[in-house]
Amino acid sequence: MPMEEKVRSFLKSSFGDAIIREDNFREQQSFYIKPDALAPICEELLHDGELDVRFLSDITALDWLGHEEENNGRFEVIYNLYSLSHRYRFFLKVHLPANNPEIASLTHLWQGANWLEREVYDMMGIRFEGHPDLTKILTPDELEGYPLRKDFPLTYEVPQFSWNKDQPPEVIK
Amino acid sequence: MPEERTVTLNMGPQHPATHGVLRVVLELEGETVVKARPVIGYLHTGIEKTMESKLYYKALPATDRMDYLAPMSNNLGYCLAVEKLMDIEVPEKVQWARACLAELTRVNSHLVWLGTHALDLGAMSMLLYTFRERELILDVYEACGGQRMMTSYIRIGGLAHDLPKDFDKKVRKIVKVVRERLHDYEALLTDNEIFINRTKGVAVISAEEAINYSLSGPMLRGSGVKHDMRKANPYSGYENFDFEIPVGKNGDAYDRYLLRLEEIRQSLRIAEQALDGMPEGPYRAHVPGVVLPPKEDVLYKMESLIFHFKIITEGFEAPFGAVYQAIEGPKGELGFYISSDGSNKPHRVRVRPPAFVNLAALPLLVEGSLFSDVICAIGSIDIVLGEVDR
Lengths: 173, 390
Fold this sequence. Notes:
Chain A is of the alpha/beta class.
């Protein structure tokens, strides 16, 4: 059985209710799942000897503000999983609401999730419940807001001198 | 008053051995590190946000500026991801040329790593030697793209120009010279007692931990996990080349040193094979409206001129969807996740930075070891802060 089928049947049999839909754009398998089911699914995947999904490659997030995709939930968190022995990659995707986006942390399963989740928090403002140290990682402490959200403006700041120190940064459209 | 047992020491962000602007807050008990906390972000320039506001073509130069020691690898990863999104097949010659350049880039990156790592550990002369060899590679970059570091030579659907006339000769010279000089490096370091004492058994990570920390590249292979994107999920014609994946045994800094030297050798092998079998053909795919037509055509053909103008001014519209393309960069799995909302600009470009993920394991590598080993651990991870912070 090809790996694609194996992953599908594994998820369908154990977590059939949690799967919203499957997407196969450009031969990349991704599953949209319910947020509550994420941690149990990952735990099962990690300990399943046959699928051998032990490598969490990446965590990232998208902001669908102003797009029709927003109806499913404004934020989309993407978990990029990889099986080293089968050389197979697939994605778990979760939609989160605009107000107080929060999802369970995976740090208890993968240590590698620590910084990846911190970056998503810093850039998108998604909170990871159960994270040991959910603090800013890339942006300065005094920066307010989450830079990769679509409502955060892209600005250009002119180097400041005494003659232009009160000038506000220019917004790039 | 309770007795203070530990001292907090702030290392960086301007420490020369942190390879840029990394700050590590160390808690020391005597000379032993109790706790280490890397603090990053001093070089954060918002590259991902910048790329969102640019057309697919114009976002490319931003990729050079992340890992500035491996510009061609970054270009390659981004272009492959966009090509996957647009479903473009590039000509065979382009694939081989890209593979050759990506391997030269790996040699370039590893040479800089070797020089600076040895410098950190007190072997100053290595830096002078490796930078001498790197110069030859930068010359090839200059001949290809006109620039020595920020090349942007690999473009969506092909290359910026055809390969230069003396490309073959220049690369063969590099292969010959670097291969010979590798013996010199080994003579200087491999059996050097000081170097061995500083690196053997230092910054050890087991295979289990390496996988759990999502490490990739030499950090993962140094612990004995045989995983390389070039073999696991070949891209850009890597299935045509004959090469080995070296792995380490002990997962310490010394094994990673041996492994990177071997990787340079394998990269030279691939570059040589790519030169031997370089197919003839166009240097850009023919996809009107998406890939820029060759410059020669733009000067003489009406349609090419129109397409050129249209692509530069309004770009092309990508289908709705998201793709991920990972390549084996010099530092590990370099991935580009591009999400498209159907417009002519990427909705989101996410870079999976290998150095960022690898650096997260620093506390594990140094806690419990001596303070002087922190320098060795940072060096052996091989970070470039431009990529860590983006």
